[in-house]
Each structure stands twice: as structure tokens, then as C-alpha cells.
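Sequence only, no structure available. Ideas?
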Amino acid sequence: MAQSETPRARVGVRITILYGGTFGPIHNGHVAIALAAMAEFSADVTMIPSADPPHRPPTSATALQRAEMVDLAIADFPGLHCNRRELHRHGKSYSVLTLREVRAEIGPQAPLAWLIGSDAFSQIDTWQDWQSLFTLAHFIVVERPGQPLAEANSSLQEFCRIRWRQTPQALQEQPAGLLYRLPIPQRAESSTRIRSTLAEKPLMNADLAPAVAAYIGRHGLYASRV
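Reply:
I predicted one. C-alpha cells follow.
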């Protein structure tokens, strides 16, 4: 019996890149990472604010407010987009549900990738139906300060070992299942630290786009550090 071949992507179809997260609040580091992925893959990046993230405690900003801040932060960057699909879905914002939706929309052969920080990726084996994620999408991983991928547990490292690729083109050539480290200097911005700073000095955070800082001030967000 002939061995089945690895599914191949449709020739000429540009990769779809999704960047999910709480974005509470979105900061300059988030935008820099999205722009780096856009440049590396010559593809647009769609940011997807979560409505009810299962691995993060709620913040004082509502999901809609976080999405509106994403709109403000990326307004001057053609190629970056905000999609509110998780705000319109009831229940927890499981990434596997979003990837299934998008996969159904773009078809089985179109390349699809999820942009993610190493801190979140190192815990991906705790996510809902996590192994199915790799049948749906590639992962573009960004190293986060203090969160090297080498610290992921050994079983996850073994699962990922054969999936790493050295070029963006490799992810373009098949629909899902591969990993790529995005070459970008580590960003020190942290939403947790920014929320804490804003509680002490509202509007005095250089890690935020001015429009986002102004929005936070108008709505009195993060005064309680969350």
C-alpha cells in the first residue's frame, strides 16, 4: 500500500496568520510582533481578541473595549486587522473553535498559522483539544523574556521536535502542522506590568499607542490593576 503524502497547500495561496490573545491592553510589543510576522511572511495578520479566555483571569476592560483598543492600536498599519469572532461566540474562547471556523472558511489546503508567544506556547498542551490544533494550523512562535521554549515540558518538546522549520516558505507549502520561530528581538512589554503602572500613573505609559492610552483614560480602565 502506498504511503499517504503530507497534504500540500494550494499553489499561490497566501498564508492566513491569526494572532489571538486577551490584549488587555494591547501594547506596542503586540503590534511590533504582528508587523514582524507580516513582513516575514508577506501576509496580513488578523488579531483576534478573546472574549472569555480560559487561561487568563478577567480584566476590568470588557471584551468589546479590548477589541476597540486593538482597532485603535492598528489603525495606522495597513495589513493588520481585528476580527471579533470570539466576541460573538458564547462560552470560553477556545482557540481550537476559532481555528475550526477559519479552516472551514478557507478550505482544507490553504496554509493557516497561529502567532503565539513562547510563554503561551510552552503551556499549549493544557489547551482544549490541543493536539487537534496542529491538524488545523501551523504555529509561529515568538520568544518571550524569561520564557524560553527549552523550558517547555519534555513530552511537549518531543511532540514538537520534528515540526520545527527554518524558513517561512516551509509553512507556506502545506496547510498545517509545522512550527517556526519568528526572528525578532525579545520585547519587554507586559500587559500585567502596564495595568499595574496605569493604576499608579494613568496615561503615563510609553508602551501604549497614544490613542489606546487616551481610550483607557476616558473609560477609567485598569485603575484596580486588573
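The chain has one domain: 16-187.
Hope that gets you unstuck.
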